[in-house]
Design brief:
about 260 residues, Rossmann fold, seven-stranded parallel sheet, globular, binds NADP nicotinamide-adenine-dinucleotide phosphate, SDR_fam, glucose 1-dehydrogenase [NAD(P)+] activity, Glucose 1-dehydrogenase, NAD(P)-bd_dom_sf, oxidoreductase
């Protein structure tokens, strides 16, 4: 089929977004839903997942939910296999669940290191493997891994987070290396600085906020809805020959020193 504006549509496609009870994940669900996808909200808390899905339904989006923790392999395998068996194919996976921990590297608590890696990196591995097995059998699928400007750039007190997001960028290339031949496109989406709960400490810090606005060519924080265009693009047929890339949505931050 030649290119038309329909190449960006996601009608009839089911998208699972991990950690989508709030923040960037919720906004990405909204954006994918606006482009026609049936979205599946994931949260560890069943009441919250149900509430968020029904809120999206009220907004006119076809929304369902799946309850699992991305660090609990047995639980997520069961939930994903159940989704596939009872609702149908997961065509689009967005690995969004993530956490942040801040401390000087020399004092960083090893328990925090492991907690961070379990969610930000192991979680992407477990969920992607569970979903990709179904995608491979179908010969098609889209995987979007939420990376970060910290996939490329370090900052004091968040070295472990940067290590986890750098690893997700490389895991994205590994997915491309092994799964492209099965019709799967795996790409990274790397947000700059967006005001969500994860960044509350930074948003509340006037000195940081002023520094960030000077450091970012666009001169401001990102708005979460500004991530949706890139997510829809990477989930849609318009990006069928793009694989293993990481798209930075950062107001130009990673392009300048
Ligand atoms: P957020 O508001 O803190 O949301 C994170 C989401 O992940 C929450 O819904 C959280 O659920 C969920 N989550 C955490 N651990 C989980 C687990 N074990 N299993 C399932 N879900 C889990 O953060 P955000 O800013 O939206 O960040 C979303 C993603 O974008 C993360 O990967 C983050 O690293 C990345 N990112 C954010 C920014 C930014 O500026 N905000 C920049 C670059 C990258 P609970 O509510 O239960 O904790």
């Amino acid at each position: 089929m030649g290119f038309t504006s329909d190449s960006f549509r996601l009608d009839g496609r089911r998208a699972l977004i991990t950690g989508s009870g709030k923040g960037i994940g919720l906004e990405l669900a909204r954006g994918l839903g606006a482009a026609g996808a049936r979205v599946v909200i994931n949260d560890r808390n069943a009441d919250k997942a149900r509430r968020v899905a029904s809120q999206l339904q009220e907004e006119g989006i076809d929304a369902d939910f799946a309850v699992f923790d991305v660090t609990d392999r047995a639980q997520l395998l069961e939930a994903i296999n159940h989704l596939e068996a009872t609702r149908g194919a997961i065509d689009i996976l967005v690995n969004n669940a993530g956490i942040q921990r801040r401390a000087p590297l020399e004092d960083f608590d090893p328990n925090d290191w492991h907690a961070l890696m379990r969610v930000n990196l192991d979680g992407v591995f477990h969920v992607s493997q569970a979903v990709a097995r179904h995608m491979i059998a179908r010969g098609r699928g889209k995987i979007i891994n939420i990376c970060s400007v910290q996939s490329e750039l370090a900052r004091p007190t968040i070295a472990p987070y940067a290590a986890s997001k750098g690893a997700v960028k490389m895991l994205t290339k590994g997915m491309c290396a092994e799964w492209a031949r099965h019709g799967i496109q795996a790409n990274g989406l790397a947000p700059g600085y967006f005001a969500t709960e994860m960044n509350r400490a930074l948003v509340d810090n006037q000195e940081f906020s002023q520094w960030l606005c000077k450091r970012t060519p666009a001169g401001r924080w990102g708005r979460v809805e500004e991530l949706c265009g890139a997510a829809v693009f990477l989930a849609s047929p318009a990006s069928d020959f793009i694989n293993g890339q990481t798209l930075f949505v950062d107001g130009g931050l990673t392009s300048v020193v």
